[in-house]
C-alpha cells in the first residue's frame, strides 16, 4: 500500500530545497521505481495462498471472466518467457527512468501515463506467469527455501 502512495510525495520533493538533480531522481523513484518494488514485495509476501485469496475475491465479484482467464498453475515455456519479459521490463524502466528520461520518447509531461502503464504491465505479468511463479517469488523471502531444477 505504501508503494502505491509513493507518487503522492512528489509535490513534497519538488517543493523542497534540494538540488534539481536530486529532485529529478527522487521524483522518478517515487513515480516509477518504488511502486513496482512494493508490488513485487507484496506478491512475494502473499505467496500462492494469498494470491488465491485475492483472486478468489475478484472472481466472486467479476464472475466467470476470471474463472476462465485466471492464471494457470503451469504454463508453457513460451508463455513463461513472455511473462518474464513483462515482469522485468517495467522494473528495469522504472529503475533507469531517473537517469535516462530524456531518451524516452514523449516522457516529459506523460510521467503518470508511463507509471500507470508500467504498473499494469507488471501486474498483468503475474497472471501470465501462472501460479508456480508465485511460489518462486515467495521463496525469495523464505530463509529455508531451496531451488530444485527439473
Q: How are helices and strands ordered from N to C?
A: HHHHHHH
Percent range of helical residues? over 70%
Low-confidence regions: none
**Number of separate domains:** 1
Number of helical stretches of at least 4 residues: 7
Structure report:
The chain has 7 helices and no strands. The protein has 150 residues and is mostly helical. The chain has one domain. Helix 3 runs antiparallel to helix 5, helix 3 crosses helix 7 and helix 5 packs antiparallel against helix 6. The chain is elongated and about 50 Å long. The N and C termini lie far apart (36 Å). 19% of the residues are buried.
Describe what is shown at a glance.
With 150 residues, this protein is mostly helical.
List the helices and strands and how they pair.
Layout: H1 2-5, H2 10-15, H3 20-62, H4 64-69, H5 77-100, H6 111-129, H7 131-139
